[in-house]
Amino acid sequence: MTLPLNELAPDFEAETTQGKISFHDWIGESWCLFFSHPKDFTPVCTTELGAMAHAAPEFARRGVKVIGLSLDPVESHIRWAQDIAASQGMAPTYPIIADPDLSIAKLYGMLPASAEGDPSERTAIDNATARCVFVIAPDKRIKLSMTYPMTTGRDVAELLRVTDSLLLTANHKVATPAGWRQGEDVMIVSSVSEDEARTRFPGGWTAPLPYMRIVPQPR
After folding, report:
1. Catalytic pick from 45, 72, 99, 164?
2. Is 45 a known active-site residue?
């Protein structure tokens, strides 16, 4: 199983396409989007890494660092980046972690502890569950996790949407409804009492249900 929400994201040291990092130090005081891939030179992952390269400036504008992981050596990642640039119009501008010994994938529960073998001999199917996304807060705790099948590409616009929600709700006592987009109304969280709500939201709220208090998005 992948790690539960609010669990401390495990720290590690690793080689990446941009040099060696210590993960927690690399995150620093930022938010982080950490996403994994089972194998280099796979078709769906190639499109995802390209899409994330195009979206990286949007994440940076939000104060979110992006980092990928694939279960092959750095040298393979560098060759793969050439294919990504050629087919997707842009190579990754963010680091891609090398995990040829599978240690990070195991640390994050993406693969069972018993997984082993030479990365060149392991197939994408062998590593199929290394298709995770984690959003990690500055306190290094996991605030979102998702796992995708190999045949379904990730929607970067959705990752931006949920990141916007996480950033907003980390700073204000609100929750975002289904399908919420930046600028739309939000809901006061249930833990906020009526007295506190009146202080925090002096403009009042609408309540279509006794437990649903809708307010404009805080700025």
Report:
1. 45
2. yes
Q: List the domains of the chain with CATH numbers.
A: 13-153 (3.40.30.10), 172-215 (3.30.1020.10)
pTM for the whole thing?
A: 0.94
Say how far apart CA 62 and CA 154 lie, in whole Å. 20
Active site residue 132: no
Which entry of 32, 40, 72, 139 is annotated as an active-site residue? 139
Whether 2 and 109 have beta carbons less than 8 Å apart is answered as yes
pLDDT tens per residue, range 106-160: 999 999 999 998 888 899 999 999 999 999 999 999 999 999 999 999 999 999 9
Task: Tell me the CA distances in angstroms from 115 to 102, 107, 133, 179, one per residue in order.
Answer: 8, 12, 20, 38
